[in-house]
Design a protein that fits this description.
Blueprint lengths: L2 H13 L2 H8 L3 H15 L4 E3 L4 E3 L1 H29 L3 E7 L4 H15 L3 E7 L2 H9 L5 E5 L7 E15 L11 E3 L7 E5 L3 H10 L5 E6 L2 H9 L4 E5 L12 E6 L4 E9 L6 H10 L3
Parallel strand pairs: 3-4, 3-5, 7-11, 8-9, 8-10
Antiparallel strand pairs: 1-2, 5-12, 6-10, 6-11, 6-12
Helix pairs in contact: 1-2, 1-4
């Protein structure tokens, strides 16, 4: 059993058809079928049940798929680690980031990091927290930049400083008479525009303060919150550093005074997974600010 055979078997397991797997591997079907047969003979177990249209993994096949993924990932990680040693701190760093963290990432982290490690290039993937965590699990990005709250059970995390949430509104909607901060209770019965990731945090904090928040618009991007607030449709609630993400020329912001209504940016990566030299340097710099 070698790396090549494991790649062949994993393609078959993922595709569920030898024909599709052969197409994915850019090889003919008969040689691939023969490789599967040889692997079963070598291991002395039946790995798949062959049907007219697809194959099903046996118990042994399911176990081998899990082990093959681990072995191939380790082989790939080893190759990357050796390449890092040869090249030094160079290469491309793949980062996934949520929109509400983009401004902080660029202004406070990447600029200084690039000055110190000018040989590193970047591949940035944007999306909501669920997409970033999915990209991490699939190995498409090495490091994710997300905001609390999130499920950190399978992750290593480095946190930046906490920051408050702010209420953003047009001057016509401003009831504060020039104040730069507001109490959370002042948002009672206000039409709130909220990035869905913060719904639970805002609801729980509001209930603790004696009122049910009135969510006028729920969305999946902090920039949408800014656009809707800028149009005068309600009061947007966003992290303070996200204020500059989109056009806000018609908006003013008010810090919300609340010990609970805060959020933090975090750099996250999969536990016990190989990190390239660029990723390690970036993580070190993330909390060095």
């Amino acid at each position: 059993m070698d790396i090549r055979q494991l790649k062949y078997f994993l393609a078959i397991a993922e595709e569920g058809q030898i024909t599709s797997a052969a197409r994915k591997l850019q090889m003919a079907q008969p040689p691939l079928s023969q490789q599967l047969k040889l692997l079963e003979e070598e291991l002395g177990v039946k790995l798949v049940e062959r049907g007219p249209r697809s194959i099903q993994l046996t118990e042994a096949g399911t176990l081998l798929r899990e082990r093959a993924q681990q072995i191939l990932e380790m082989a790939d990680s080893t190759a990357r680690e050796l390449a890092d040693l040869v090249k030094g701190v160079r290469g491309t760093l793949s980062i996934g980031t949520v929109s509400s963290s983009a401004a902080t990432l660029l202004q406070d982290r990447l600029f200084e990091f690039h000055k110190e490690y000018s040989g590193i290039k970047f591949a940035i993937h944007e999306g909501n927290t669920y997409r970033i965590l999915d990209l991490l699990n699939r190995g498409i990005v090495e490091v994710g930049i997300v905001r609390t709250p999130f499920n950190s059970a399978s992750l290593e995390c480095r946190y930046a400083r906490s920051e408050p949430m702010v209420a953003v509104m047009t001057p016509d909607a401003d009831w504060t008479h020039g104040r730069t901060a507001i109490e959370l209770g002042e948002l009672k019965q206000k039409p709130l525009i909220v990035y869905r990731r913060f719904e639970q945090l805002i609801r729980e904090t509001s209930l603790e303060n004696g009122f049910e928040p009135e969510f006028f618009c729920m969305n999946d991007d902090a920039r949408t919150t800014l656009h809707w607030a800028n149009a005068g449709l309600g009061i947007g609630l966003i992290p303070r550093s996200a204020f500059g993400l989109a056009g806000n020329g018609n908006l003013i912001s008010k810090e919300i005074i609340s010990e609970s209504l805060v959020t933090r940016v975090a750099a996250v990566w999969i536990k016990d997974k190989y990190l390239s030299a660029p990723a390690k340097r970036f993580i070190d710099s993330f909390t060095g600010q």
